[in-house]
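Limitations
The structure tokens in this dataset are predictions for the assembled complex, not deposited experimental models. Users should treat interface geometry with appropriate caution, especially where small molecules or nucleic acid strands are included. An illustrative entry is reproduced here so readers can see what is and is not provided.
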Amino acid sequence: MNVRLRQVLPLYPMDVVFVIDATESMAPFIDEVKGRVRAFENDLRSEMEQQSKGIKALRARLVAFRDINDDPATSFEVTRFFSLPDEQSDFAGAFERLETFGGADEPESGLEALYLAMQSPWVREPRDLKRRHIIMVFTDADAHELGAATIPRNFTQGVGPKSMTDLRRYWDGRRASGSTGREMDDWAKRLVLFAPDQIAGVETRWSQLAEDWEHTLQMITPAGYGMRDTDWEEIIRTLVATSG
Amino acid sequence: MSDAAEKPSQGRARDRSMRSVEDRASKAESEQQSREPGRSVFDRFRDLKRDRIQLGSVTYRLRRHVGGQSGERAGKNETFEATRDGDDAQVVFVKRFRRPKFPTEQFESESPHDASTARASCDTFERRHKAVMGRLADDGVGAGALIKPIDFGREAGGVSFVKVYPFVADAKVATHVELRRWDQATRRRFVVTLLLAVRQLHRVGVVHGDLKTDNILVVERPIGPVARLVDFDDAYTTDASPTDVRDIGVTILTPEIQVMVGAAGSWPEQLPLGTGCDMFQLGVVLHQLLSTSGGLPSYETADDFEGDAADAVLKGIRLEYGDLGVGSPHFSWLCRKTLEVRPEHRPSIEQLLSALAVKVPS
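Predicted assembly:
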């Protein structure tokens, strides 16, 4: 048998959902991501190894959102999970096709997008307790209150959350009515919010989530500035730090 | 401290109607600040806005965020260097857990059944931590090498649990590089202090649950470097139920648990939760620190195999120990035995100590 010395690393099967505000002000951030996303798998693997972790399998998908109240037809853009690195080009292509428009009247439909992300068909290898279901939200705006608008039927078969309590129930593991996805595992889920903490002195709904929800952290972004100061390395390092 | 932390039970009435695009411009200054040279990528972390955490009647003033064990934020909690209010000289580490979270009053009123489930999770978490802390109060041989938590509870007026550990001056994480520089007597003394710490835990019926090199500190004493064992967040008592330790999750993955989880397809109702878990993890740690094959556990295997120590053992692949440099071939042999698949086939901590000619009063 061909043998060699191998190092022991804990290996994580990882599903990552990028939930991105695609309104006009976010153009600087999305341009940054478009230029770097092809290296996502490689960059993530390198950073994981720096922290003595390994990737067993990696899938990623994109959930882009704008504002249901502006135009329901363009309010969401959702891809399937892409297996990386095999489908790296398809994954990067989804970002490259993403256009920024609308959103002049903050807030946006970020909480509905978060719900769609939670409904993802997560990896459920029951024998692997190291699996990670990670949602990363990127926005420079607050989110609309839930319940006032309905998610278009082509994005979800369910009714969708009618309140923050509804949304939290789903995060806590209670299935939403009509949900098409699989539940997020209690020990696998992580929610990372790159979002403003307050706007005009008022706490955002994102900060409320970060305070009250389990397995959730928030990196504060300035409101309305397209997350110009958030670079790719910060995203990768945060993702790895969160996976532990 | 944020309003949310101070008043979780109050409704978060807000008025967003006055917001406009102009409001966004007010953030230009903070954007400029965040671009300053030398800024850490984690400087924007929300919890850094806190300056204090209150636990019962005690206020801890936060001095800086120090992240997880490896210096970055860990997945399960945030750690701060802090001082106890009124005593600037006493430096402590304050950990704020990301899970579980106590339900807010609003959540209680809108979803009482789910809030009840959340409260039950909090009760289980609290019971486990307090049971361990109660047993750590025992002052037997080896207890001095345990850096015991000094405070624990739910943040006053908040939803998160907080745990406080003493700060250990001049301590550093143990590494194989450092241990290899030591002579045999020094290595042996360090290992003995580590084993005595684990023995004390097992004697009082506590399983550490997360033995790894990051949780073993080196401190200099007049007799030379000795070990200190830290981080009892994943510890549990040997009579805990599988439900009580369910929230710990992945850190207690040993071959026997991995086999049972694989067979059940989920968290089993019956789990081997005895001290054998620690013995497996201790065997991996001793390999990392003392063996000559590298800082991370290494093994000879076919090219297509990847996994951690538990995966390797289940595949029949053994870590190579060789001479561990503590002057006892029998100790090296016992260390190899700590990686047996079945916990009852692993040596006890007393056997390891005996192999180093250490006699401890019962």
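Some entries come with short summary sentences. For this one: The first helix of chain A runs from residue 27 to 36.
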